[in-house]
Amino acid sequence: MRFTPAAAATLLALAPEYTLAETSASSSADQCCAALSSSAIGDKVIYPGDAAYHTSVTSYWAVNVQLEPNCIVQPHSADDVSAAVQTLTTAGGENPCKFAVRSGGHMTWAGANNIETGVTIDLSLMNSTIYDKEAKVVSMLPGSRWEAVYKTLEEYDVVVPGGRTGPVGVGGFLLGGGNSFHAARVGLACDNIVNYEVVLASGRIVNANNATNVELFKALKGGSNNFGIVTKYDLKAIDNAHLWGGINVFDNSTTTQQIDALVNFIDNIENDPYASWIGLWQYNSTTGKTLISSPWDYTKPVAHPAAFDEFAEIPRISTTNRFATLYNLTSELQQAAGYRDVFLTSTYLNSALVLHKTIEILNQKISAAIPLARGKDWSIMVIIQPWPKIYWQRNQNNGVGNVLGLDRFDENMLQVLYDYSWDNAADDALFQRLCEEAMAELDAYAQSIGKYNEYIYLNYADVTQNPLRGYGDENVEFIRQVAARYDPEAVFQRQVPGGFKVSEA
């Protein structure tokens, strides 16, 4: 049962001895919502039946994560976030309020950034981007989407290393490390952050940088939502918003040529760090075909750079290569919303054998799904990306480092993401099972030939995975110590169930 705002507020006022321990989980959450409605940010709390509530819930990218919290609070500022956190950490009594934190809502597992029985703090209205020309620093609020960030920065002819598809949210992307078109030049996105503004569990608002709260500064570079809620990110700007690139489409029969070219590309990317390549092998049930789509992106305006020569020799079905802004290129890479979805990812040493096995397993799962899927519109895809050592070696001069643990490795690697999407809820178990099987089979194969790496990119990880563990024991312990220092009551371990918790690593 969910109370209306008025009824919940009345219950709270008239029954002060009515403890949350005596209620159902939903009634407990209603009490927490009532407390928010009675607080200084009461006008920013929305409920089922409100148009804004429906808009928030349905704006999550994957349909299967569109949970329905008892209420949603939409702060406009860090002070609002602080007020929400203070209310939620004090209103629950013996049954603490459970809450979720949402930036862009692009994770694909239910509960990562939303909650069914509890409160969601939806940061989407905190979405401005400001450029400081003198400092050459871009300040972004956590609810910003990368497409809006890039569009704002076009006026100044600068960019930041960020998401490669426009609708992805700033907050989650940066807390998970952040791979970008610029990674070979400037390192991962988190290594370009010069300051975080953070609301701690106490409600205190602090800054973390290389001079203040230095341990927190480092821990946030990959440590996800274990410490507080980041309400502003300051990143170093990169000159020149103009690039060359586009999407190149190939027949599936070119797989061997693609793999050979990719292995060479990964091992030579440090010779031309302006080049970025992604490969998507996608089967679509509506066409019954598998095609290869490959975004090529060169982060300065040079046409047909030599870095892509080996790929360019492969016959193409089509190409959109052109001079364009980062905003334009990332808008082109948007995946359709409105589907149910699952991601699973792993990392491997650069190996043609691993790549061939990746595609072999993809084809096996397509064959398995065809006679079993009940929906009419579904897709099985694998996304392959370079993960060369230059990505993390770039951060070694920033004086702080990060907690990703990649500096333990001195070999070029590649990243595999199995991405299955479908339209019918009746197929949830089928596609989850097939995707988990694919990842497990590829991991086992890579281990058998000595090509497996324990690192898991958090932003692509499924709830069945444990990316923090892949950071290594030393970094996990560091994250645990920082979390204990800045959140001594373990609010973000116990009251915020979503995300990847260091207490479970």
UniProtKB/TrEMBL annotation:
Residues 65-240 form the FAD-binding PCMH-type domain. Gene3D superfamilies: 3.30.465.10. It comes from the Eukaryota. The keyword Transcription regulation does not apply. Keywords: FAD, Flavoprotein, Oxidoreductase, Signal. Residues 1-21 form the signal peptide. GO terms for molecular function: FAD binding; oxidoreductase activity. Coiled coil: none annotated. PANTHER family: BINDING OXIDOREDUCTASE, PUTATIVE (AFU_ORTHOLOGUE AFUA_1G17690)-RELATED, FAD-BINDING PCMH-TYPE DOMAIN-CONTAINING PROTEIN-RELATED. Belongs to the oxygen-dependent FAD-linked oxidoreductase family. This is FAD-binding PCMH-type domain-containing protein.
